[in-house]
Specification:
By secondary structure, this protein is an alpha/beta fold. Helix content is 41%, strand content 16%. Strands 1-2-3-4-5-6-7-8 form an 8-stranded parallel barrel, surrounded by 5 helices. It binds 2-phosphoglycolic acid (PGA).
Length: 250
């Protein structure tokens, strides 16, 4: 049985004050979450605050990006080992905003995935197609290409210590969620593709859905057999919405 996981991706949002009240509310209500592991990914500068507030709770934390390099002369970058220093469990790699706004290639994302694992962080590898790619019937090819870049560099067994998030780019921040059937179809494709190489890894792999998940649509998404939770953007900034989503996990 795969454990459900719900991760909040705060993106470039938050302040010391708003983070405090959000995390306090999550902590106060954590008892209402029965079936999901929960984690939040605040901006780097708030990782220490997350650590202070979440240490010794069941809520994990992680970062939204890392460098593909070892520590050194890379102005403005953060190394995987630094995230470990701040108690991070997870790091998101290959989010579509990084791929599309900051030009991260599949190969670069795979290098970040490798760096995360070498520091014993759990990478949350985001994959997903643009609207025009879906309309051109390229959805499976895109997801396969993004996945293969990691498998080619690190081997299929490396996925055993990772999480995958399927996030159709057209559903991110748009209010347009994939239907449960659309999401399930891609999740099953991803699991099937990995199963061709290692059935055990595929069976145990947590595959999250992301893209306009809200309290009102989480339950129907999470009933799908290959959806193991969610990567939540906008709705993770509101404690009640995020808690409702976590409560919806199987
Ligand atoms: P959203 O973002 O929930 O605001 O659509 C999801 C994500 O980008 O991870």
């Amino acid at each position: 049985m795969r454990q459900s996981l719900v991760v909040g991706n705060w993106k470039m949002n938050g302040s010391i004050q708003s983070n405090q009240s959000l995390l306090d509310s999550l902590k106060q209500n954590i008892g209402s979450i029965q079936h999901a592991e929960m984690a939040v990914c605040p901006p780097f500068v708030y990782l220490q605050q997350a650590r202070q507030l979440l240490e010794n709770t069941v809520i994990g934390w992680g970062a939204q990006n890392i460098s593909h390099q070892n520590p050194g002369a890379f102005t403005g970058e953060l190394a995987a080992t630094m995230l470990v220093d701040f108690g991070c469990k997870y790091v998101i790699v290959g989010h579509s905003e990084r791929r599309n706004l900051y030009g991260e290639s599949d190969e670069r994302v795979a290098e970040k995935f490798a760096k995360a694992q070498s520091a014993r962080l759990i990478p949350i590898l985001c994959v997903g197609e643009l609207l025009e790619e879906r309309e051109a019937g390229e959805m499976e090819n895109v997801v396969k290409r993004q996945l293969d870049a990691v498998i080619n560099l690190q081997g299929v067994a490396s996925l055993a210590k990772s999480v995958i998030a399927y996030e159709p780019v057209w559903a991110i921040g748009t209010g347009k969620t994939a239907t449960p059937q659309q999401a399930q179809e891609v999740h099953a494709f991803i699991r099937g593709r990995i199963a061709e190489q290692d059935a055990g890894v595929a069976e145990n792999l947590q595959i999250l859905y992301g893209g306009s998940v809200k309290g009102s649509n989480a339950a129907e998404l999470f009933t799908m057999p290959d959806i193991d939770g969610g990567l939540i953007g906008g709705a993770s900034l509101k404690a009640d919405e995020f808690l409702t989503i976590c409560q919806a996990a199987r």
